[in-house]
Write a structure and sequence with these properties.
130 residues, alpha+beta, Chorismate lyase, five-stranded antiparallel sheet, 5 strands, 18% helix, globular
Length: 130
């Protein structure tokens, strides 16, 4: 995770873990790691009532500009599966994303696990303007 944030091993991070529900059914487990020096004020924000990105923008004036992400099918870890209401062995979709600001600084690393039975993945080809 340290390499994803482009920080030194001795530097602190903030860990934000959220269980996403749809009609009271667990559908995803998000674990976000923003760098501590950049996002220490997030510790005082109720992220059950406000989104992480909105908090970054409104309180800290940090706006996500772009991201690099990978999505893969994998077997879920026991702890994640129990939170998602699944039994091992169970396949999940794992998304890992590095989010950057406009200066190219990593403002978050996200490791998210999605129930594969509750999500469809739709990809659209990129078309350059012209």
């Amino acid at each position: 995770m340290v390499s994803h944030l482009h920080i030194e091993k001795c530097e602190k991070t903030v860990r934000i873990r959220r269980l996403r529900l749809c009609n009271d059914i667990p559908v995803a487990l998000d674990t976000a790691y923003p760098p501590y020096p950049l996002c220490e004020p997030l510790l005082d924000i109720d992220l059950e009532k406000q989104s992480l990105y909105r908090s970054l923008e409104m309180q800290l004036h940090i706006r996500p500009a772009y991201a690099k992400q990978t999505i893969r099918a994998t077997l879920g870890k026991d702890n994640d599966l129990s939170l998602l209401g699944l039994r091992a062995p169970a396949a999940v979709l794992r998304l890992q994303r590095q989010t950057y600001d406009s200066q190219g600084q990593v403002i978050e690393f996200l490791d998210a696990v999605y129930r594969r039975d509750m999500h469809d993945l739709h990809l659209f080809p990129y078309r350059a303007a012209g």
